[in-house]
Amino acid sequence: MDFWDIVWTVAGAGLILLMLVDVFHTLLYPHGSGPVCRTIMHGCWSLSRLSRRGVSSIAAPMAMAAVIIAWAAMAILGWALLYLPHLLDGFIYAAGVPRQADFAEAVYISMVTLSTVGFGDIAAGYPLLRLVLAAQAVTGFGLLTATVSWILQMYPALNRRRALAHQLNLFREAATPGDPFSMGPSHAAGLLESLASSVAAVSIDLLAFHETYYFLEVDQRGSLPATVTYAQELASEAKTSDHPDLQFAGRMLEAALEDLAKVLRGRFGHAGTTSAEVLEHYSTHHRHRRAGGAGTG
Asked: What is the pLDDT of residue 136?
């Protein structure tokens, strides 16, 4: 192998390693996301905020598709660079198949292997190359199943967040104006404890499924950023109640909201020294409130 063969091999191995690390941190590690995934998701989100709202609502699904394409591209190009130094001597060509030693040929071999299609027109001639091709085929099958699982796991987390927003809206609509706990302290305490449990689940979802943060809700009734400040109002009023059960439920809801604020501050960079400020910034950042507290409607 000459100097450039070594360069292509090292570059290919680096791309493959980057892809594997990114997939591991995004899909397998419970509290993180890979550098490629994080950069693409954040970049698409930042660009969408400069555009119209209709574009913002599809930015996150498009970013997820871009992440999957990026993983496939890194795998295809990485293995193609590994195969390039071994064209033509390292492969056996079927009769009638043109013999080429360019990068396009290496990409073709890599794509066919990664997709597990295996046309059989080109086969590895060296034992080590056979193992490399087999490893790529296994990786391609694993990447396909992993990305499908990623998508299927994402939407239940989004539904839990939407369900919490709907709960808060229903509570606000059903409560008596000026007296949200008129249904009775014990019953109200149970409702607040249920809300606290839902807030805690959303905090865990944001840690485990970092990408769900970037999904913008078009319907305000299903948007947690548009309704989370009402949960703070409920917690504050419950803490001042004379009923001990309601006081405890208020403290429980407040603690859950503080945990949510910590996640938003630590993982997504929302500004604020108090949980109220962080949640207000979260609401503004998702375009459901204007600075100063006025709703965008």
From this structure: 94
